[in-house]
C-alpha cells in the first residue's frame, strides 16, 4: 500500500475524542471500504524542551491573558517529519468490531443485588468460561509464556503465578504492571470471595510485596498498588499489581477497581464462611459490554 | 509585560511531564527571578478533523509500520497562531509554593492501623480544623455561596448542602461535579463513620440521586458516581458526586476514593455501633503532603 492510500480517506463521523489526551478516532471510507483512523498528538520531545519559547522551537507566540503573576500564551511549535506533530493508526479495511471498539461508550452504574447476580451476571459469566480462558490455563499448565513467569507458588489452594501484563514493556517503572493468576479454577471474580479465601489473598499480598522488590530493587513495597476488577475482563480470579506511578484511568477507578487490602479488611470483618455473595455490589458497566447488552439493559430500573 | 519577556526564559529543569496528556512543567529564570512554564499540546480542532490526512491539514506523512489491516503513520499537522499547537501558562515571578505544586510528587502506600491513626493521623487532622475549614462553615451558615446551593436538607443529623464544586463550569456534563457537605460538624473523614451514620449516608445517596435528575433532566441516577476521599483534602465530611463521563484521574482511583455505595454496604455488614475506627485503612499519600512530611515519613517501615 502506498502513502497515497490514506490521502483517499473520506470522513464520515467522529467515533470518539478525548481532549485531555489529545486523542481522536474517526470513521470514514477508502475505496468503498470502512476505514478507522486513530490519531493522537505527540508528547513534548524531551531533548528539545529546554528550548521551549525560543524562536527556533516556538516561532509564533501570543499573550492571551494576564492576571497577576499568571500569563497565558498560545504558540505554534516547530515540527517536521522526524519530529512529527501527530501519530496515527489506520485500520483498513475495518470491521464492525473495530468500529465498536473505538466508538464512545456510554456507561451505567449497576447495583447488582444477590438476586440480580443469580439472574443476570452468573449466566453471563458461565458463557465466558471454557475456551475463552484457555489462555490462562495455558499459563498455569506451563504450556505458554513459561519464560515470562516472575514468581510461582504451586500450592493448589493458596498458590498463584505472577507474570508481567502484556501492556508492560518490562522496563519503564511508570507503567509497571504484573498480574497474579491463582492456581485454583473455582474462583471467577470478587463475588466468589469469602472468608475461606483469606489465606490465598494474604499470600498473594505478602508474596508480591516480598518478591517484586527482590527482582526490581528500585521498587519498594509501599510503591505497589494491588487491586481487583469487578467486573473483570476475564473470569479466572486474578489480582493486578501496578506501580503507584502507573496511571490506570478507568481501570483503577472506584466502581471498577477494589484495593486488595480493602477486600482483605472487609472479609476479616465478616463472620466465618461469609463473603461477597450476600452483598449488593455497585459498579460501572459500559453499554457496549456483553453483560449490559445481553443482561442489565433488559432490567427495569 | 511585552511578548519578548517569555523569550528571555532560561531553562533549568523539568518539574513534571505527562506524555499521555502531552503536558509539561519546567522551571527556569527570567531576569534572575524564578519562572515556571506549564505547557500542553492543543486538542484536535473539531471543525477541521474531517480533513485529517488531506494535504492542507497534514502536509507530510510517513508510513512507519504495517501489520495486516493496521497501518501506523506519523505526520505533521498544520498550525498557525489562530490554530496553535500549544497553550502555555507562565508563572513569573514564581514562588517555592508554585514550584512545589508543579513538581512531580512521589507517592507511598500507607497501611494506617488504628494505632497509627491515633499516633499520627489524628494530631494532623486536629491541626487542619478551625480556620482552615471556616469556608465550609460559611456555606453551611449561609454567609457565602448561598446562591450556588443546588439542594439543602436542614436536618442537623442527616442533612447536608449540595452545591457545585468550583472545578465545574455548571454546563459541561463530562465535567459534572457536585459536593455534598454534611450539616453536622463532628465527622472529619471516612475513619469516623460507623453504623450510626447509615441514615446520613443513605439520605445523601437517595436525595442526590433524586434531586440531580430533577435539576439536570439529561442526567439519570445510573450515570452518577458518589464517592468519598481518604485522606480528604479538608476534614469536614463530604461526598463527591460526579457524572460517569468525568475522568477524575487520581482523585477517583482506589487508594484514594471510596464508593459511597460500598461504604454503606460495608457498614451494613458490621455489628451495631462498629465502624471504620477499628480497621486498618490502606491509601496512597503524596510525599509533598503535610501528613507524609510531618507524620508517616518518620515511621519505621
Automatic annotation (TrEMBL), chains A, B:
A GO MF term: RNA 7-methylguanosine cap binding
Keywords: Hydrolase, Nucleus
InterPro entries: DcpS/DCS2, HIT-like_sf, Scavenger_mRNA_decap_enz_N
Record-listed substrate binding positions: 135, 145, 165, 167, 229-240
Pfam families for this protein: DcpS, DcpS_C
Active site (record annotation): 238
GO biological process terms, semicolon-separated: deadenylation-dependent decapping of nuclear-transcribed mRNA
PANTHER family referenced in this protein's UniProt entry, alphabetically: HISTIDINE TRIAD HIT PROTEIN MEMBER, M7GPPPX DIPHOSPHATASE
Family (UniProt): Belongs to the HIT family.
Protein name: m7GpppX diphosphatase
Source species of the chain: Saitoella complicata (strain BCRC 22490 / CBS 7301 / JCM 7358 / NBRC 10748 / NRRL Y-17804)
Amino acid at each position: 500500500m502506498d502513502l497515497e492510500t490514506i490521502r483517499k480517506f473520506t470522513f464520515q463521523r467522529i467515533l470518539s475524542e478525548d481532549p485531555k489526551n489529545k486523542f481522536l478516532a474517526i470513521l470514514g471510507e477508502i475505496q468503498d471500504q470502512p476505514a478507522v483512523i486513530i490519531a493522537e498528538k505527540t508528547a513534548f520531545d524531551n531533548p528539545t524542551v529546554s528550548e521551549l519559547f525560543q524562536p527556533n522551537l516556538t516561532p509564533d507566540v501570543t499573550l492571551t491573558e494576564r492576571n497577576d503573576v499568571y500569563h497565558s500564551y498560545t504558540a505554534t511549535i516547530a515540527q517536521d517529519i522526524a519530529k512529527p506533530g501527530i501519530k496515527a493508526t489506520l485500520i483498513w479495511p475495518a470491521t464492525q468490531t473495530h468500529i465498536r471498539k473505538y466508538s464512545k461508550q456510554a456507561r451505567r452504574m449497576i447495583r447488582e443485588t444477590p438476586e440480580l447476580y443469580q439472574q443476570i451476571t452468573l449466566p453471563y459469566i458461565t458463557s465466558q468460561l471454557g475456551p475463552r480462558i484457555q489462555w490462562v490455563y495455558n499459563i498455569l499448565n506451563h504450556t505458554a509464556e513459561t519464560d515470562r513467569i516472575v514468581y510461582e507458588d504451586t500450592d493448589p489452594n493458596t498458590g498463584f503465578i505472577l507474570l508481567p501484563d502484556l501492556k508492560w514493556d518490562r522496563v519503564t517503572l511508570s507503567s509497571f504492571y504484573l498480574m497474579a493468576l491463582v492456581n485454583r479454577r473455582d474462583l471467577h471474580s470478587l463475588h466468589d470471595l469469602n472468608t475461606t479465601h483469606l489465606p490465598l489473598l494474604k499470600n498473594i499480598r505478602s508474596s508480591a510485596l516480598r518478591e517484586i522488590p527482590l527482582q526490581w530493587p528500585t521498587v519498594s513495597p509501599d510503591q505497589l498498588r494491588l487491586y481487583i476488577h469487578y467486573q473483570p475482563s476475564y473470569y479466572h480470579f486474578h489480582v493486578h499489581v501496578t506501580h503507584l506511578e502507573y496511571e490506570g484511568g478507568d481501570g483503577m477507578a472506584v466502581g471498577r477497581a477494589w484495593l486488595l487490602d480493602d477486600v482483605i479488611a472487609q472479609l476479616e470483618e465478616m463472620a466465618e464462611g461469609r463473603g461477597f455473595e450476600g452483598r449488593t455490589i455497585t459498579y460501572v458497566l459500559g453499554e457496549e459490554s456483553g453483560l449490559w447488552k445481553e443482561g442489565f439493559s433488559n432490567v427495569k430500573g
